[in-house]
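User: Teach me something about this protein's shape.
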Amino acid sequence: MQDPYDYEIHVNPGYGKKRFSSEEIRDIFVAIVVLSIAFLILYRNQTIMACLEYHLGETGRWAGLFAICFFLVVFSFLLHEFGHKFTAQKYGMWSEFRLYPVGLILTLVTSMMGFLFAAPGAVYIRGYADIEKNGKISMAGPIVNIILAAIGIAAVMTMNNSPYWLDDPAFLAILVFMMLASLNSFLAVFNLIPLGPLDGGKILTWNKVVWIGMFAIAVIEVICAYYMTSDISYYPMANPFI
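Assistant: First, the predicted structure itself:
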């Protein structure tokens, strides 16, 4: 647009393009590392750890679990935030991820208590967006989680051939996909709750049908993930007759 002095004003250089600042890249890196450590603490006493010990040994299991947690964070939390970021940037808005220091501490503390309140930061957006654009920007994050949960559920249903031996590589893959399905289905349901700053309220304000459809799918995925977890059976050690 033009100002009264007849020179061009660049409201957002790089309009519609995916852009990162150095500060944002730093914050993303810190958030990923902290979340990965929190998930490692959360899963350290679960079946996945015993399974990794068979494959990587007592020491290597920690590195293996951290790698899996890193994978889960990148493909769950980070892609959720990128959904918001890239959609906002598509509409020409300023959009960057920023750390929330108190949230970082809560993330680590709650993981030690046996559950996880993951709030290391969020995507901040500046610029004008009408109700429709705001709804679509908010929708982009949970959609990522719904798709990833569906992938995890489909993989488990395809690969499941219970019972497994604990040292079976297929069982390890099943556990990782179950974690992917459980985490993403929960993230989708939680973020679609129409309260406070969560995505659900903005989507509901824009389009009730879209919100109902997304929330229903997410709830079904949570139920599927829960029953898949209870349906998988395994033996505690390798078959001595093979």
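Now, about its shape. Confidence is low (pLDDT under 50) at residues 1-11. Helices lie at 22-43, 47-90, 101-112, 131-159, 169-191, 199-206, 208-231. If you'd like, I can walk through any region in more detail.
User: That's plenty for now, thanks!
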